[in-house]
Design a protein that fits this description.
Number of strands: 2
Radius of gyration: 19 Å
Number of helices: 11
Order of helices and strands: HHHHEEHHHHHHH
Strand order of the largest sheet: 1-2
Strand content: under 5%
Shape: globular
Structural class: mainly alpha
Length: about 290
């Protein structure tokens, strides 16, 4: 029984981090229909911001998180203006973004690899290797802090989307871009800001990832399938669905890893992505596609 509780705790702790990693990806798809394969590489970019802040200045990754958020948010605006804005109204926009973001991912990986090499790195604040013990059960402080901060950021995003006037504009654009534009919403500006928020969340996730996982520039290829499995299971564009999917799959992966080995833990996400696309492509909260 103790072992089951321990595995569940570890799965829940990582679920919060995965939820933040996937939330920005889900937001960008929901508003702009951009299938952002570059999202994991930008998360690694945020991890490097936190890593170098810690290494050069001894700055805690939690303190570096807002800095990573701002830097990656600004990067998102630049990317949107240079790469995604021009063809936003194209009927084949989503299909085009798969290739565009794949190219961006390759460029980001190459730039990070050239600047920092492919050496595995990790930030190491004191809490990253400490734990809270409750009887025979332990809670890793690093994962606990990362999960709590992740959920706080997602809650802030949810409140912003639900109660702010700009949040209304984002939700309107998500539901029907053409109708929102007819009602006076500047959908191009909404798309740019939404993209920037999504990439900013990638930067924040990177700061947390920097002390939870080891990372290097090419690590993003492993994370693509993991994040896509969360977004697809939750329903493309549904942030709530992504959060629930993150906890479901991280808990399942934790049990699989404990019983079958770490290799099969990662395979859980790959296999789930295959099965979701095969049997329920609309996910938990997505709309079932209509045949035309």
């Amino acid at each position: 029984m103790i072992d089951l509780i321990q595995i569940l705790i570890l799965g829940l702790a990582l679920g919060g981090v995965f939820a933040l990693m996937g939330a920005g990806l889900s937001l960008v798809f929901g508003v702009m229909r951009i299938v952002n394969l570059a999202h994991p590489s930008l998360i690694i970019g945020g991890a490097y911001v936190a890593y170098w802040g810690f290494r050069l200045g001894g700055i805690d990754p939690m303190i570096m998180l807002p800095i990573a958020l701002v830097i990656l948010g600004a990067t998102g605006i630049i990317l949107y203006k240079l790469v995604f804005e021009k063809e936003a109204k194209s009927a084949k926009y989503s299909e085009m973004t798969v290739l565009l973001t794949f190219a961006v991912a390759m460029i980001v990986e190459g730039a990070l690899g050239t600047a920092f090499t492919n050496t595995q790195r990790v930030t190491s604040p004191d809490y990253a290797t400490n734990a809270i013990f409750i009887g025979d059960v332990f809670i890793p402080l690093g994962q606990l802090y990362a999960g709590m901060v992740s959920l706080a950021l997602i809650a802030a995003l949810a409140l912003f989307l639900k109660y702010s006037s700009f949040g209304y504009a984002i939700r309107a654009t998500t539901q029907n871009r053409d109708a929102a534009e007819l009602l006076g919403v500047n959908v191009n500006f909404v798309g740019m800001v939404s993209f920037a928020i999504g990439i900013a969340l990638a930067g924040a996730a990177g700061a947390l990832v920097s002390f939870v996982f080891s990372f290097f520039p090419a690590k993003h290829w492993e994370w693509i399938a993991i994040l896509m499995s969360l977004v697809v299971l939750g329903g493309m564009g549904s942030i709530l669905g992504t959060v629930l999917a993150a906890f479901i799959l991280s808990i399942v992966a934790a049990f699989v890893g404990a019983w079958a080995g770490a290799t099969w833990s990662t395979m859980t996400f790959f296999l789930s992505l295959f099965l979701i696309l095969l049997f329920r492509p609309q996910g938990l909260f997505g709309e079932k596609p209509e045949l035309t």
